[in-house]
Amino acid sequence: MLQKINKKFVALVIFALTALLACTSQIQVQGDAKFRQGNVIFIHPDGTSASHWGAARMLYLGPDGRLNWDRMSNLAVYLGHMKNQLTATSNAGAVTHAKGVKVNADSYGLDEKGKAVVAASGKPQTIMEEAVAAKKGTAIINSGIIPEPGTGAFSAKTASRLQFAEITKQIVESGVDVILGGGEVWYLPKGTVGKHATATQTRREDGLNLIELAKKKGYSVVYTRDELLKLPAKTKKVLGIFAADDTYNDAPEEELKKQNLPLYVPTAPTAAEMLQATLKILSSNPNGFFIVLEEEGSDNFCNFNNAVGCIEAVKRADDAVGVAMKFIEKNPNTLLVTAADSDAGGLEVVGVTEKDFPLDKPLPAKGANGAPWDGKDGTATLPFVSAPDNQGKRFPFAIAWTGFGDFTGSIIAKTHGLNADLLSNTVDNTAIYQLMYQTLFGKELPKS
């Protein structure tokens, strides 16, 4: 009898130890999961605060709807001050994302002494430059001109953000596989006629033809949405130039109406289409890939207080988020990160009853405190009307503006996919780099 009890006791001990080891093993797997290495897609919807996303949600999906951005799994309040001021600039904010350290507001990759900013990795390279060196697939995508800092600062450094010709040159020479955006005027010498730019528009004064240089480096060059989407399946390097300047026309609504200009260049691909094409090219790279995409219209339209253009641009950014999320469904070894660095125009939604905002009557030009208001066609026009809520009810609303330019607003960073759980609560702008670096290279860096 005692021998049977001992055998049972030993069996129970063995079972318990086996279970404990299994549990410990599972904990270890979960613990190591936060260091898993994979692809990174960074989408920078420039100038967007929670209010910008809210306006897009209301207009396109209704107050009960959900954007792709809403469905991302993790979020944190974004803290984005610079080394020498509270409100971020587009260039310095991008340098912080690209290098993981605080810089002065005028930095485009250089420090106060004119030397390359040393990244949190201890190297003078940006995270994009390290990805190129590691032979990962790489891409920069912008709906604005290609030297726009939200993406340009990942592959170039200059004394001023206004050195567009030099920045464009550095990007073409950077080794990045996919370069998509506007700005043909900065690729061609003065007096040269381009696909989009006239002889009087082209701006380079050094005589360089960067398009010809790109072709010599093995890039296929495309100029329209159709050309981009029809690229051969085995294409490896692409330069897309989709407008003479930006792919949008950033001006107040009244000015665009006067000139009969659309919000976006009709032949240019959307941010979502550019990302879709890029994923087809880079996803076959065995070393993984790193993509930085910026929807710049959400900053520029808002800075001109063009409400309809601003909300359209936010929707385009959200469509790109949706493309990335669908890719992650089939490729879970990919991290999606979204973060703006400032609040463009200080947008707020003014939502009252239809009695206060009749659908057939123009809105007041200003609120009671003097803040400018926009309707769906600009100042003193009919109100926006939301998509239906769950009860089928639509609501009128106006957009109120704090002013022109960028502000320190209620910015939210989000993550989805691989290592998404590393983002929570609040996140400093330097930590966006940390999260991307850890995922891209499988290496945790010391906290900045």
UniProtKB/TrEMBL annotation:
<keyword id="KW-0597">Phosphoprotein</keyword>
<comment type="similarity">
    <text>Belongs to the alkaline phosphatase family.</text>
</comment>
<dbReference type="Pfam" id="PF00245">
    <property type="entry name" value="Alk_phosphatase"/>
</dbReference>
<feature type="signal peptide">
    <location>
        <begin position="1"/>
        <end position="22"/>
    </location>
</feature>
<feature type="binding site">
    <location>
        <position position="341"/>
    </location>
    <ligand>
        <name>Zn(2+)</name>
    </ligand>
</feature>
<feature type="binding site">
    <location>
        <position position="294"/>
    </location>
    <ligand>
        <name>Mg(2+)</name>
    </ligand>
</feature>
<feature type="binding site">
    <location>
        <position position="46"/>
    </location>
    <ligand>
        <name>Zn(2+)</name>
    </ligand>
</feature>
<feature type="active site" description="Phosphoserine intermediate">
    <location>
        <position position="90"/>
    </location>
</feature>
<dbReference type="InterPro" id="IPR017850">
    <property type="entry name" value="Alkaline_phosphatase_core_sf"/>
</dbReference>
<dbReference type="GO" id="GO:0004035">
    <property type="term" value="F:alkaline phosphatase activity"/>
</dbReference>
<feature type="binding site">
    <location>
        <position position="299"/>
    </location>
    <ligand>
        <name>Zn(2+)</name>
    </ligand>
</feature>
<keyword id="KW-0479">Metal-binding</keyword>
<protein>
    <submittedName>
        <fullName>Alkaline phosphatase</fullName>
    </submittedName>
</protein>
<keyword id="KW-0460">Magnesium</keyword>
<dbReference type="GO" id="GO:0046872">
    <property type="term" value="F:metal ion binding"/>
</dbReference>
<keyword id="KW-0862">Zinc</keyword>
<dbReference type="InterPro" id="IPR001952">
    <property type="entry name" value="Alkaline_phosphatase"/>
</dbReference>
<feature type="binding site">
    <location>
        <position position="46"/>
    </location>
    <ligand>
        <name>Mg(2+)</name>
    </ligand>
</feature>
<keyword id="KW-0732">Signal</keyword>
